[in-house]
């Protein structure tokens, strides 16, 4: 366990933050460059764009639960390093294939799946590793810092990604993400901290997976968090399809303008990440979850009024406010989950959460692709907005959530 100290005097935490910043920055470049590679370079249809989203998220269905068992059995830092290295190599293959003139949608699907596998292992081990380097009463601050960095990356990364797409073309812009993942892996490899010993007695993979699921589904609060996460990930799958179709094809924005609009939404995340620890301290984890859900649902309705000309402003403004509210919600629920879960179960708890939540996103991506073939982009925009509102209802209709608070250890 970490010794009691200021979170910013914690060398391991500083390096973790640095690695996370690199990784998240590159990920946000890919958020723009990967779908634009499919849309502009390979002229993908709306349904093929939905399949690309599904391919990246399919890893949560395929290995989401076993990844949690391995994160509990093994030391977590090496998992983080290996996951970043895997993602770097996979993304590097896209500019190389484009240079050779052999890039195809099939390769994009494979790379998206490999990147998804790396993301599953990284995210599960990452959340479970944070309590190894941060004191329990600093968890809201530590996770809030991570969320702020994630949002800061989403503020700068997409804009840079759009610019790189214009200058280098979409496939070669992905080189930036490959480099950031490689740098992140290098920084993570330098972290020295005492992790808990690897358990000597191991049960079957199936038994350990089942224990993690039972823990989450049997816990009243964790079960409700998983429900909200699943519904919102389904909506996010829709957004992964509608966003490039709306901004690039329907509103005819260039790659640079597209990146800037996506970046603008990250400003809300930065504000939310800064405010979230203070909100958790004052109103408790439950207050942050409940208030974040109510505001996210309301602000998402603003996005629905996006239109041509000056009405395009409703998209970044509504998204920024929604993201700010969501970050407050995520810091509240994320610090609650880590604090109430025993260390030996943390990997499986986080994996079960990721499985239950993120498995809905490929379904949303495919559904979004199918709906885009049948509905206008404007109709799909409102379907996506309403799906996000519905995703927050399990918290909104549960006022008892507001009373939840994790006391410092």
TrEMBL record:
Presence of keyword Protein transport: no
Keywords assigned: Cell membrane, Membrane, Transmembrane, Transmembrane helix, Transport
Any GO MF annotation of the entry: transmembrane transporter activity
Highest taxon in the source lineage: Bacteria
Membrane spanning residue stretches: 21-41, 47-67, 106-125, 221-242, 254-276, 288-307, 313-332, 353-372, 378-397
PROSITE patterns the UniProt entry points to: MFS
Domain Major facilitator superfamily (MFS) profile: 221-409
Topology versus the membrane: Multi-pass membrane protein
Protein's UniProt name: MFS family permease
């Amino acid at each position: 366990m970490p010794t009691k100290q200021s979170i910013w005097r914690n060398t391991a935490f500083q390096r973790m933050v640095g690695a996370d910043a690199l990784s998240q920055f590159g990920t946000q470049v890919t958020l723009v460059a990967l779908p634009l590679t499919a849309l502009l370079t390979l002229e993908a249809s709306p349904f093929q764009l939905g399949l690309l989203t599904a391919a990246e998220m399919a890893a949560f269905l395929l290995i989401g639960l076993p990844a949690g068992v391995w994160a509990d059995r093994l030391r977590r830092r090496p998992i983080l390093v290996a996951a970043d290295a895997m993602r770097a190599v996979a993304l590097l293959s896209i500019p190389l294939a484009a240079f050779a003139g052999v890039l195809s949608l099939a390769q994009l699907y494979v790379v998206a799946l490999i990147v998804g596998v790396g993301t599953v292992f990284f995210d599960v081990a990452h959340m479970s590793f944070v309590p190894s380097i941060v004191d329990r009463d600093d968890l809201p601050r530590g996770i809030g810092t991570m969320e702020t960095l994630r949002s800061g990356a989403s503020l700068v990364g997409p804009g840079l990604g759009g610019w790189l797409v214009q200058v280098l073309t979409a496939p070669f812009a992905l080189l930036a993400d490959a480099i950031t993942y490689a740098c992140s892996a290098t920084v993570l490899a330098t972290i020295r901290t005492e992790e808990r010993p690897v358990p000597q007695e191991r049960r079957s993979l199936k038994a350990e997976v089942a224990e993690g699921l039972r823990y989450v589904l049997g816990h009243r609060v964790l079960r409700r968090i998983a429900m909200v996460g699943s519904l919102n990930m389904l909506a996010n799958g829709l957004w992964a399809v509608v966003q490039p179709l709306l901004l690039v094809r329907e509103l005819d924005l260039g790659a640079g303008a597209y990146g800037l609009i996506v970046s603008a939404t990250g400003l809300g995340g930065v504000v939310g990440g800064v405010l979230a620890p203070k909100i958790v301290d004052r109103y408790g984890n439950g207050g942050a979850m409940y208030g974040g859900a109510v505001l996210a649902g309301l602000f998402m309705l603003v996005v629905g009024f996006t239109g041509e000309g000056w009405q395009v402003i409703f998209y970044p403004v509504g998204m920024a406010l929604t993201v700010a509210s969501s970050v407050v919600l995520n810091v509240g629920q994320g610090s609650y989950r880590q604090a109430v879960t025993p260390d030996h179960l943390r990997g499986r708890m986080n994996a079960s959460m990721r499985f239950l939540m993120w498995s809905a996103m490929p379904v949303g991506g495919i559904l979004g692709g199918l709906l885009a073939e049948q509905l206008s982009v404007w109709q799909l925009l409102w379907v996506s907005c309403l799906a996000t509102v519905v995703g927050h209802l399990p918290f909104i209709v549960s006022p008892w959530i507001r009373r939840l608070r994790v006391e410092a250890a």
